[in-house]
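stuck on this fold:
=====
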Amino acid sequence: PSRGPNDPILTPTPDAPHQLPTLVTEPQQYTVQPSDTLGEIAKAYGVSLESLIAANQLENPDILEVGQVINIPPPNPEALGPNFKVIPDSELVFGPSSSYFDLAEFIKQSKGYLSRYNEELDNRTYDGAGIVERVAREYSVNPRLLLAVLEHRSQWVTLPNPPDGTVDFPMRLADNRRKGLYRQLAWAANQLNYGYYIWRAGGRAAWVLQDGTIIPVNPTINAGTAGIQSFFSQVAGRDEWLNHVGEEGLFATYVKLFGYPFDLAVEPLIPPDLTQPPMQLPFEPGAMWAYTGGPHGGWASGSGWAAIDFAPAETRGCVQSETWEVAVADGPIVRSDLGAVVQDLDGDGLEQTGWTILYMHVETRDRVQAGAFLRAGNRIGHPSCEGGQSNGSHLHLARRYNGEWIPADGPLPFNLEGWISEGDGVEYNGFLVRDGKTVEAMEGRQPENQISR
């Protein structure tokens, strides 16, 4: 902790104003792209879904066609949002400060409903601590924050009997597709990540709240606070939202559970002079692969665009592959389960510190086990569709540093034996470039996306 036991708690210093997108004042138009939804378009332009439906006289807002032109009405914003910092950046991510947190013991000592909870997932029984830990590791969100949000929404951490309506929907998101703690918590983690990483990528002009209110974002908040403000924009209208993101909201719940959050800050979380360690392409010499996915979410849509995808040349669809994927660098394997393999590159055996690599959709058969130490080029396993959603056997490769998803392009792009990742602003689009040669990310197997070592 940076504050002495008898020192007063001081209000965190506001960030220097971040350069944010300008809130538009004139109508605009947008051409629908593959996989777009009206809700995502509304969020991107900072307008309410209702105003978008009305401006386009849409009878069925669930049906869009690629190439369809959508009229974007100008937003009608309220006053500037609050500048109160809720948490430091390091308390949003699954980073260094979470490495010494005993999650199971904390839940046990709190004696709430969470300590007695069990849920079936993937033919396994998880207790409450197991579910929180799984979401924390998958989404790379701090387990303390997940507990604080859960307590703030339903008091599951400290109350033996939760309030009515929260047993199935502990985040108070009444969606039958997201019933149960795992799906509710995973949804919350994705929303927290969205605000955090959109702030890292240049910010948002405004939050659109659940009731359609448009709140311009205060440019002096930090990424961690942006994650909190983004999350509550999905579940609250204006007055509730202002309470949740203020001093008497989630911040007070956090202090009650864990103390002053800024005492736990790790700064800088991402050093300004950070460089990527040497990495190679994740396949064996002579094997032909296809570059099938440019920069996209490291885990689900809300996280930073940390991942790129490769598929073995001989397979189509979710079929068993005999092709091997290999380690991109040296380091121990710290997790191998549910299609995921995580390699620690700083050698301390912790997933929360330094550089780590996620290899996703690795088949159970022949998969490297946790505890093994691999050199670059050693075998990880076979690409498959295991773990998460996939329509074809492939490798999803992503980097984290101190628990933060590192974008696959931008200031610190993937560098795989000189192949540099580039994006074009559209998720899954992109290129690998080396010595004047370009490989384009494309679905399937095309001459333009073939790559080998």
